[in-house]
Amino acid sequence: MNKLESRPVPKRAKSFQHTRRFLPAVTLLEKLLQQPIMMTEQQYQHLIDGLWQGDTLMDALVDWLFEDNTRQRKQLFEQALHEGTVSIKDCPDILQQFFAHVETQPEWLDQAQLQQAVAFMHSVGLNANYVLRDLALMGGYLLAGFNQALVMTGALNKGASQRLAETSKWWMDCTAPHGLERFSAGFKSTIHVRLIHALVRRNLHRKPEWNAEHWGLPICQIDMAATNLAFCSLFLLGLRGLGIVPTRQESQAVMHFWKYLGWLMGVDPRWLVDCERDGHILLYQSLFTQAAPDWTSQALGSALAQEPLQKEFKRWQTLQRHYSYHKHLSISRLFLSAQKMQQLGLPKYVLPWFPAFLIPQNLIGYRIQRRLPVLKSWQQRRGRQAQLNYMATFGSRGDKVIQPEKNHPAYIAG
Predict the structure, then answer these.
(1) CA-based radius of gyration for the chain
(2) Which residue of 137, 253, 277, 409 has the fewest C-beta atoms within 10 A of its own C-beta?
(3) Domain residue spans in the chain?
(4) Least confident of 123-137, 184-198, 301-315, 323-337
């Protein structure tokens, strides 16, 4: 069999011929960027292969969990995660091998860049939450191929507020100072989420309801890589849309931070990029593996839009809930067209009124504060506190990162 035909094309993906439809516009963009964007047939097949590829290391560990005495083996994994494999007498080889891998930092890792990225993400304050929630997450629901696994985990029944709280808690853990050190919350949360992904992948793939011919593998490499890119290259692009222009060094630091986080999460190195431009190109190319918006886009988008109405505020709760609801809609409208708003089950006649106030504030205030050393430090502390205050509005829902309930495909009886 020809190497380019090694994997079938799931119905969710566009054909290779479809990727050539925008050739004139892409050719012009390639000249401007001085970087190839249009995929070759081989690059296209690599993307298709990625739709069938999981996380080799964690998938093997999950298979081991289910070979015998799953509950006890899951407890050993948790002990290794929180206390290290040295705490386990006669630790199983597969646990030792997995944790030896994730505990051995890649040669390319630069701690200084990690610290710079954290400082920058603190300094932007709630702008980070706006971009990640109202552009990356909301816009991501337009990708029906990505939605299928989410819906089958019971996301619609669980509630958007809980899902957003769990994702926000993970992001806060990871972006805490030294949050990715071995026994810090961000490192442990990431490995925990990686396990959840593998459990979901294993269980959904075995369900008769999962149509592999149409969707490929649940939580595949391409979906994981695209999600990782949403936290870095799309994040940086969205910040620019809100009036915050990162320096080249800040951009590189953020991309480096998420490259390492993607590596910890089990993203194949071939889908990890070093610079923002490469991230945009890969994200653009990955869109050809995604199905058009469908009912899941409307269901998930509408649920996320309603999420602020469940927030917990200390005072003027009803007023603040409705203000937050309309504020987030207006931010989404800045980034998304009226048609895309409608495809997400959102009102399309929305004006970006909140960004109209926010952008000038960022263009002037943020830039001035960043240039003055004393104010820059204050800006970082103030921005992080705003992020912490935002987490408080989730109440107890924001205390933990994804704790599967009994009907969740990642549930293992404790």
Answers:
(1) 21
(2) 277
(3) 104-398
(4) 301-315
